[in-house]
Amino acid sequence: MTVRIALVGAGSMGKNHARVLQALPGADLIAVMDPDITIAASVARLHGGQAVTSLKDLLALKVDAAIVAVPTQHHFETSKALLEQGIHVLVEKPIAATMSEARALDALAIEMKRVLCVGHVERFNPAIQLLAKMLREGALGRVFEVRARRIGPFPARIRDVGVALDLATHDLDAMRFVVGADVTRVYAEAKREIHTSREDLISALLRFDNDVVGVLEANWLTPTKVRELTVTGERGMFRVDYLTQDLYFYENADAATINWVEMSVLRGVSEGSMTKLMVRKVEPLRTELEGFLAAIESGDLTNIVNAIDGSRALELAAALTESSQQAMPIQVGRG
Fold this sequence. Notes:
Layout (H helix, E strand, L loop, with lengths): L2 E6 L3 H11 L4 E7 L3 H11 L2 E3 L2 H5 L5 E4 L6 H10 L3 E5 L6 H14 L3 E4 L6 H11 L6 E9 L11 H17 L3 E9 L9 E8 L4 E7 L6 E8 L2 E6 L4 E7 L18 E7 L6 H15 L8 H20 L3 E2 L4
Parallel strand pairs: 1-2, 1-4, 2-3, 4-5, 5-6, 7-10
Antiparallel strand pairs: 7-11, 8-9, 8-15, 9-10, 11-12, 12-13, 13-14
């Protein structure tokens, strides 16, 4: 099966999608849409497809699916227009600008019986995939804490959102995925130093419904780029470097010889050996797009980030912003 795909939005992320789609079996890039015809034409020349500047022109090309990589404020209207025409949609994160928009998109996709997935690409990092698998298998025993750092310089492309929506949504989804639990309470502090209207630094605490504590740090104020996630538990600590796709395990030597079937209380922690695990390195965006194509063909949504998960990440990011503004913890519900 070959899926006829349109790219809506030919900015930095859109260009990455076009590059990967060009080499992806089962995908045929039919159209590249951008309000700037020069940009659209440039991407189309490199990766295929017809350059267009409007949804009307795009829809005339009879596509099966679309990648929505426009600014966040246009996610809802663009995705809605595509779904209404029976087109499967992968929308870049966050799913929408508000929870009401996110719920409306989810309901529309169900009504139209179309795939709607959200581009939380970090979930497809092979190191994160392996970590989640090992945690599900009990590699750490009880998990105590998950901690994420996503920091670096201010990106010129950002205009309409702050770090909570642009950066923290990545880690909120990844943290929920690896821990296998949902968040019940958040508290955050934020600052605005460079961005003209939004926060460009946020530090947050999260409580998961399985009693795991989350710590999240995101900013555009650090002169070096760090993308890191750690999970600490009874048997030690895992550390993921997103940028290199490396996964490390730091052993708790006091727990190394414990019979975990019989042992119920951790009696000590001491430094043990460090192991770098073998990770089969692949481009996360390719894995994400392969999952999208598979979902279109089979209806199996197992290997995508669905609208419910995308909406949850949006809800949590909004709660972080609200907490920082009110200077108080925020309780968050499910859904």
